[in-house]
Amino acid sequence: GSSAAAASGDALLNICMDAKHHKTKPGPEGQLYGQCVLWKENACCTANTSMAAHEDQSYLYNFNWDHCGVMPEKCKRHFIQDTCLYECSPNLGPWIDQADTSWRKERIVDVPLCREDCEQWWEDCQDATTCKVNWHKGWDWSTGINQCPQGSMCQKFKFVFPTPADLCEKIWSHSYRASPHHRGSGRCIQMWFDPAQGNPNVAVARYYA
């Protein structure tokens, strides 16, 4: 009946995915660092994870943002925010899917990212450079840090990702989808929000659950 549906819906709310650095259950984290502070009332990340999210080549994934020259700060802050959302948010349950990689059992797929979040990310990163459309796979890891695969060319984001949707949807193999909805609509996930107003993604998860 409807109560069973409601119960399975509730199971998607306020949970942490089973992945490399996530806590088993969300809860308050008083010491979250920097841009991750938005989630301190209720987080899936620890303080250490939040600090590492801000470092280049952090122990989280040994991932080098500067694989084609230094990524500009105004661009990098979006990648930091993307990492904070991924590691800290307890509101991604409706989009958690099985992953068959060595380093995580679950991933997110098609999280509807608010239009402004996607457009601003693209706007601030269009002059940054990269050699790959999908950053999840195909790197040369022979040195222990991701490097551009042989034969690939470094180009500006605006050529690699001609539209904001290309960036948001392709860079992490469809972890996000570019939502037509706006921030505050209750129909899309915000990477950025004002914690003083509460976390808007709680209601969004409930809507999609």
Automatic annotation (TrEMBL):
Residues 15-190 form the Folate receptor-like domain. The keyword Acetylation does not apply. Coiled coil: none annotated. It holds the Pfam family Folate_rec. One of its GO terms (cellular component) is external side of plasma membrane. The keyword Metal-binding does not apply. Keywords: Disulfide bond, Signal. One of its GO terms (molecular function) is signaling receptor activity. Belongs to the folate receptor family. This is FOLR1 protein. It comes from Ceyx cyanopectus. The lineage of its organism: Eukaryota, Metazoa, Chordata, Craniata, Vertebrata. The gene is Folr1_1.
